[in-house]
Write the structure tokens for this entry.
Amino acid sequence: MVAPSATLSVLNRADGSASYQCSSTGSNILGSVNAPVELPGRRDALKPEDATIEVFVKPGTAPAGVGERYVEGILKTLLGRVILGREKGYPRRGVVITLAIIGGESVGRGDPYLILLPALLHTALLALLSASVPLSMTFSATVLAVDESGQIRREPSAEDAATAQSVHVLAFSSKGHLLLNESQGSFDFDTWEKVRQRASAICHGTQLVSADGDVAMAEDVDGRPLEGTLRETVEDQVYRDYNWKINAA
Amino acid sequence: MASSAPPPALTLPPSQFARLQPHAYLLAHLSPPAASNQPSLRANGRQPAQFRPTSANTGSLTHTNGSAVVRVGDTTAVCGVRAELLPTSDIASWSVSHASSGAKHRQNTTKNDADADADESQIQDLNLLVPNLSLSTGCAPGFVPGAPPSALAQSLSHQILGLLHSTRLVRAEDLRVWYQVPSFGGDGDMDVDADDEGQKKKNDGKEIKAFWVLYIDIMIISLAGNAFDAAWAAVLAALRDTRLPRAWWDADNEMVVCSETVAEATRLSLRGLPIASSFCVFEADAAAGWRAVIVPDAEEEKKIEEDQRRGMQRRWILADPDGYEEGLSQERVCLVVDREMGKTVIVKMEKNGGWAVDGRELKQLVDIAAERWESLKLILEQC
Amino acid sequence: MNKEAPLSIAERDFILNALREDVRLDGRAADELRPLKVTFGEEYGHVKVQLGRTSLVTRISAEVTKPHDDRPFDGLFTIAMELTAMGSPAWDNGRQGDLETYVTNVLDRVVRHSNALDTESLCIVKGVSCWSIRADVHITDYDGNLIDAACAGIMAGLQHFRRPDAVVKDGQVIVYGVDERVPVALNITHKPLAVTFHSFDEGKRVILDATRREEQAAEADVVFGLNNAGDVCFMSKFSGSPVDAMVFVNKTSVALDKVKEINAVIDKALQADLAKRAKTGRAEESRAENDR
């Protein structure tokens, strides 16, 4: 399994940005975050004590439609719980997240956005980190397909997902909570529990708690846990950004 | 001349308290003081796992092929299904075949599905089902006239479309208008090449001449929370009510002709009866907001039993939330289940917006959704 | 919002005074382009254009549709550009601003109306099916001169794109996947590009390829659309203060030089990409042989 690759702060104008490539699904997503920004005309926001989160998903080769509105809703709900919109400077302002699908297949009308969802989530998270938006936790997500024989397949292609019995997207927080679940198809609860276990292993690996209480990431059949890959991307960026300071010390 | 009577304590009627401090109001209902001996009820008087009274009525619109009105408490959805004919000559992609399209068809056929249909994907490829949901002006205070379709309406439309596709509720065969090509003598000159692309259009001299396209329009005329359950129930009831007139290809006039006789119209044969149940999670700690959020560790949290939760940790999973409760909760769960021979099949399971619901809670919710399936099935069958 | 934060008076004066001494902020000459970089992605028709600090991604896609009733022999070609908050924080997502309308209009005229893509070659079966080519422009960074950059992106994309092969057999159109038959390049009749000038001091000073700040300080802009042969297919002075008519005469030849320069960059990138593909293609072929 080839790990996804990501780069932080690729754009000049946006406050934060990230580009994310997932080789197994072939998706290539560019994300930008502007935060905090003034949002005039939206002063009547539902919660004046909180930041307004706006998510915009731009498909690569088609005009945006209802499918994009729906996936924007999913991202907005999830990120709304992760972004600390009440920190200083954020209430009554906006966090504007723009995600452009600049590579890979487009999603057809009425097709579920599930296959792309983890990539969109990761891009949004990395862009938020790059814009230094305060977050309560990070998360990692994956998509799994279950075929007729009950085999679980990680990050299926569009064709695999179309022939699968059920498709599941799960996101876990850095503390192990199930943050998001989107399952479609027909399945029973036992199947879902198996899927949840596998997804948890993909995102977090098999956790080993060492003597001093630190949680170490262990590798298993799925290669490096996603959580670790994302963490490393950010660490690399921090190292580059503070190169001057580290070298001087 | 000071009066000896103390100034009256500041009191508020419940309706004002509910508006000023909605969170505290609902919390007080759900966690009454131990001394009062009152049961834990929601502000609307329901048990946490209790759904609102539901009623359904079909066939109320005369100019549609099928229609239904579904009321779930104060949320009312009207659904009308209108069938239009789409001649295959008008479909740009009809005469196009992809040399490598073998793997594209969906194959999740269930066991009792005798008529496994290789071309089931036609419904999706040709857009034969077109649902559109509108939140009508005034269905809730926030909806003003003349506004473009809100993000909520658009995403509900998409959810319904996605569910229609993934449950394969409508059979593609019901929507086809066939034409039996009269055979003129020998078939000796049949083209060998006709085999690969011929599968799609011709079998035994039969040819698809047109499709029925079902325009499924849903209007929420009153919105008091949980629009999806009501809308989906309305779609389901309307599709069960839908009758398509008999249509055939008139070879002389080269057009599709429909019969006017009502008796000849046929109902759709739907696959299963998937029913949606939505839940929201109300957290005691929501006032929370003004303080920094302290997120507990998932592993530690799992050890706390539900009835052991105290104070800030307490939370309630509320079935079929009304508008007031929806405004007070962030986490949502939506389950769509079907039952076949006593077995519960999950068709769709979504949860988002929080971390209270995990495997254990979802398992309970699936059981609640299965109960809801039984009760709603009775309602839909009676109408 | 939809408007960039205006320049401060001091900033504007600084830019103007420097220009009066023939100095630009980034040290370029008046008729000099910023460094232009064109790169292609793995898919056909995926182009990344970097012009100084302006960058964008263009994607070309094709699908089979029904032609318009009044033009049964013509395929369809659309250019879609939507400005999102990604390019500049000043742009609102999902709301069309003046700049978007203007740039889309110019691109339409330079590329589409000049018939750079031969739409008749997109016809498959008369009146029944044709190819619909769509060019999507994603602006990822905005630092002035959107028109020239987007135009170069679309033209490079059209030249790079390969559509699947389609064959008509017994009234049936068979589309072959990219891995089954060698995909077909589009029929490009000529390669028009846009070159934008900005004028200052009532049209006395004219510069090429302005940055965002220079654009904000400018009084008017003049856009030329022409191809390598020097055929002018578009010329506009849309708004702003008057410009001396001689500017049009003098700058046309400058524009022609720049068009040749940009086209040379695109050609070079195309050649390099082609060579790369040929190499990996051979590698794949030899691997396939080894498998057998």
